[in-house]
Design a protein that fits this description.
Layout lengths: L4 H4 L18 E4 L5 H11 L4 E6 L2 H14 L9 E6 L5 H14 L5 E4 L18 H28 L6 E5 L14 E2 L4 E2 L5 H18 L1 H4 L4 E5 L14 H10 L3 H13 L11 E3 L3 E3 L3 H4 L9 H30 L1
Parallel strand pairs: 1-2, 1-4, 2-3, 4-5, 5-8, 8-9
Antiparallel strand pairs: 6-7, 9-10
Helix pairs in contact: 2-9, 4-5, 4-11, 5-6, 5-11, 6-11
Amino acid sequence: MAPPMDQIRPPPPKFTEEDLPDLLGKVIIVTGASSGIGFELVQMLFTRRAKIYVCGRNPSAVKDAVVKIQRKHGQDLDSCGILQPLFFDLAEPETIVRAAMHFCTRETRLDVLIHNAGIMTPGPDKTTAKGYDLEMATNCLGPFLLTRCLEGRLKETATLVQSPGSVRVIWVAGMLAGVTLHEGFAWDEEAQCPSVLPSPIANYMQSKVGNTFLAHGFPEHLGPEILSLSVHPGFMKTKLQRSSPIALRAILKAFFKSARFGAYTEMFAAFSPEIKVVHNGGYITPWGRLGEIPERTVQHMSLSADSLSERFFNWCEEETKADVETFKASQAEQTVDD
């Protein structure tokens, strides 16, 4: 199947910062927010008075991003939002648990969780300290764990606001049509886990299919009123390609858009009133349009126990189980102390 041209050369964005409502009182988490799409998105949300947790693994980069945004809007800070740094590495689950604990001691609500962070083709045989493929850990397992730790706050917020579909979890995937494996995802039947693929691009795209599986699976766990959506943000020049070959980076630089356009896609997914409860588990395309998941991916997406998407979801559940229990224990202790 050829890649769809309307995702390679999309029409202009129809939902921009000018369309954002006042976000005063809303709490938003954006991962990978120190540069690229995340940084651009945070800037837009900041001008609408949201409280934003600016997340990243490098404390100095996150702090620099916060300072840069505040300085840019120095004359108007009184009419802007609040920026809070939050540090964790999506490949290191203990840091995710600590960050979630910290967040929950400070906040009683979470309106939108945007899984913007990710890595692409980090190099052959790159694994985490626990032996997971680095891309699968960073792009899927880490965001899964963060969502499971914060799902209590998401549910409490949905109950508080009584506005179905306003509380959302956004999973950044990619263009699935024409660029993924023929079957979309490779499963190791013997090990009962995702296969690690020899092709760097195929391995990366498999993790993006995984994000789509997770977006589809979480409504069953979060409830129908909390939207869980996967997003193809578009083709842009960002630090995501820093490990790509020099020739490829040159091509991307010549033809790709700025990161701001990807921020429009994610902003549409997170805040557009066009997206309703009926779209839960769905897919957003650049630069902010309701899209369709390709059939070769859809055929693996059902809630039956033997579907590939459900096996992948259950694998993520099992691999993060101990860390989720650690988080829950900390919350129980906090309740007792209170």
